[in-house]
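Q&A log
Question type: sequence-to-structure
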Amino acid sequence: MFDSPERLLLGLVTGIIFGILLQKGQVAKFSVIVGQFTLRDWTVVKIMGTAVVVGSIGVYALVGSGHAHLHIKPFLLGGVLLGGVCFGIGLAVFGYCPGTGVAACGEGKPDAMVGVLGMLAGALAFVSAYPGLQPVIKGLGNMGKLTVPDATGTSPWLWIAGLGVFGVIALMLSSGRNTSAASSHATTAVPVSSSS
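Response status: OK
Response body:
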């Protein structure tokens, strides 16, 4: 039922590292999440985009070398829609995504602690309601164990490279915009004349 103690310890260590990186990246701050919602602070997108590209490289390198195997879940359209709605409502109300909420909880933020309790209550409610939700989750269609490379008949490395190029361009554009915005907000000295 449980993994070996070594694997559990590895999970604990990587979880702690992930939490430290979230905290250092400042995405465990409510103002940063709200800034993303209002399209004024792109920190969350930059960090998550980087994580997706780096994680994709790592996962597919491990799969290619035979050190890991992909376990693709079926693409249940009802589950994706229901999950997306629940996730979106929770994110808007809570002000954190699950990972950043737990990291903020670790920082001792009371609002995050209440939100994490809400996440646990929501998970319990979902497990309790799951038998009744199955017709909705499975009723809108099962597209099978689908990945973008499989659907397009292309290599996953093509998609990873595309994501990487897109990410680099997006970072360059956002950095240029931040630099020009900072320079436009710079104050200029105004000479003060003294009357003699």
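Response note: The chain has a mean pLDDT of 82.
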